[in-house]
């Protein structure tokens, strides 16, 4: 059973998510709240936190994501699909990001993926990351920034696909190589960047992007 906490300042959204998730036998909402305080005041254990990015404020709660992601898996479900919001949430530690207009089955898939330690973006949001990650600037993959661990061109390409949420089999088809080769690239990347799961790999890719574009 996957236990879920839902934090959203709209009561209708909270009830809607609970109704949706309880239709699946393996999902159970154990906490509903309008703010982070409701989560902190609760002693209920949960596996996934569904969090709205804007909680009764015009400030995205990226600082809260950074704090909470250290102790739980965070899935952002937000009305905002703005690139800056998606990138800020992922950089802050979110394990997934889905917009509120996404199909119901996609939200369920996202919860299960995040609960299993994976990383999830809906297709449109993956496109946002792809545009960012597929626009190499000076020094990308060349090792010209001595602060960045050097990756080969194929490893950089693999890291970009991982960050967009593709499976190893999907990456293999896109790169026209075997899945075993992709597995090897990913292990090399993890070793070089000293990261583990998909969420960490995604943040590593975004960090490389940000640093290579720094003046």
- Mean pLDDT across every amino acid position: 85
Distance between the termini: 48 Å
Architecture of the largest domain in CATH?
Answer: 3-Layer(aba) Sandwich
CATH fold assignment of the largest domain: Rossmann fold
Number of helices: 10
Major sheet details: 6 strands, parallel
Domain Response regulatory: 3-115
Keywords: DNA-binding, Phosphoprotein, Transcription, Transcription regulation
InterPro entries: CheY-like_superfamily, NreC/VraR/RcsB-like_REC, Sig_transdc_resp-reg_C-effctor, Sig_transdc_resp-reg_receiver, Tscrpt_reg_LuxR_C, WalR-like
Domain HTH luxR-type: 144-209
Keywords:
215 residues, alpha/beta, Rossmann fold, Arc Repressor Mutant, subunit A, 2 domains, six-stranded parallel sheet, 10 helices, 6 strands, globular
């Amino acid at each position: 059973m996957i236990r879920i906490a839902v934090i959203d300042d709209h009561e209708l959204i909270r009830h809607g998510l609970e109704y949706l998730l309880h239709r699946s036998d393996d999902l159970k909402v154990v906490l509903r709240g309008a703010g982070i305080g409701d989560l902190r005041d609760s002693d209920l254990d949960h596996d996934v936190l569904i969090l709205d990015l804007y909680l009764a404020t015009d400030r995205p709660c990226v600082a809260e994501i950074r704090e909470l992601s250290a102790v739980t898996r965070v899935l952002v479900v937000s009305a905002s699909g703005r690139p800056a919001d998606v990138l800020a949430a992922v950089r802050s530690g979110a394990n997934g990001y889905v917009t509120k207009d996404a199909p119901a089955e996609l939200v369920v898939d996202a919860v299960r993926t995040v609960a299993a330690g994976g990383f999830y973006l809906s297709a449109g949001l993956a496109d946002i990351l792809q545009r960012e990650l597929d626009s190499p600037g000076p020094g990308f993959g060349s090792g010209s920034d001595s602060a960045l661990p050097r990756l080969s061109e194929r490893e950089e390409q693999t890291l970009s696909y991982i960050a967009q949420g593709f499976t190893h089999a999907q990456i293999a088809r896109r790169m026209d190589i075997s899945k075993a080769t992709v597995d090897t690239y990913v292990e090399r990347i993890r070793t070089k960047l000293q990261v583990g799961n998909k969420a960490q790999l995604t943040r590593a890719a975004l960090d490389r992007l940000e640093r290579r574009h720094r003046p």
